[in-house]
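To: structure subgroup
Subject: Chain for Friday's discussion

All,

I'm putting the inputs and outputs inline so they're searchable in the archive.
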Amino acid sequence: MDGAKLTLAAVAALAAAGAARRGSRSQIDLPLAQRGGLPRVITIADLSCGAGLASRGVIDGLLAHGIEGRVLAAVDPWGPAINSYRANIPEAAQEAIHQTTTEDALERGLVPEVDLVITGPPCIRDSTLTRCRLASLPDRQAELAGIKAAAAEIGANMGRFVVMETVKDNWIGWGRERGLSVTKLSDDKLGGYTIRRRTILHSPDLVRASVDTGVRRGWGDALPHWNHPRYVMLNDADKRSKHNLRVARPPSKPGYQVTGSGTSPGLIYTRQPFRQVHRCTPEEGAALQGFPELALESPRTRERQSLVGNGWPKSFGVWVADSLVLTLQQGASLAR
């Protein structure tokens, strides 16, 4: 039996165990808030958690509604990601953060039942993130297969709601086969600073918040030092447009999406003369993602860039929080 089949077999066994637990009473009884019948606490598991961008967005989004987001498990096999997560999510108990693969965490019982599972593959071949550091797994395809299966199974058996980030349209059929609904998010339409887009698979009973807030920002709002009409941004990931003023974006428009694997979010040029004056740093990439104070715990520039590029824009996490609150306001329960 190959690695992928072994992984799927392990996930299937865990799903069966989860289904048996599902018939029992939830482990956590949440007190309801006095206003609106909302819970005071929503528990979270973040699988392939990276530097914590998804968790940070969801936690901050829930806090805006007066709800505490409590992380009961955060899992990632990459050391710099785990170190960054600890710094960016100080609310999470240290014993809840694990440097290991999702499959290993499940097999060891490190992921308890929670209200919300947020996940996404640590590296996707059909995206720009073509190089991924999974030190504990020699077979990346086995990891991807396991994540795909685990996302649906954990959502059904270990989490009341599941939200999974993917890219492009390649996984839509897979998600629908497993009963997951599909929503396409765009950072700029959600009030973010980039044109980053993602396909989100989620529990079918999640009531979706608006995917267009009507708020529009430009990359200059995130990088005020460069917020002047004489500057434009070019996409460093697209070599064909690197020296093409026609595709350059002024500070009043959302910037190019942040990417990993050693590419910065963009190159800044002057219009006249058309000349490169700055390459965005990983920290500026984090600001473009909506996290101006994000901790990136690695001395290596490429690793810090990957920590930013592998994460969600803050607007995506806030959308998840808003959708979950809207679902609860319309009568859904966290009870399993």
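Points worth raising on Friday:
Residues 1-35, 123-138 have pLDDT under 50 and may be disordered.
Strands lie at 41-47, 68-76, 97-99, 114-119, 159-166, 181-186, 197-202, 231-234, 267-270, 275-279.

D.
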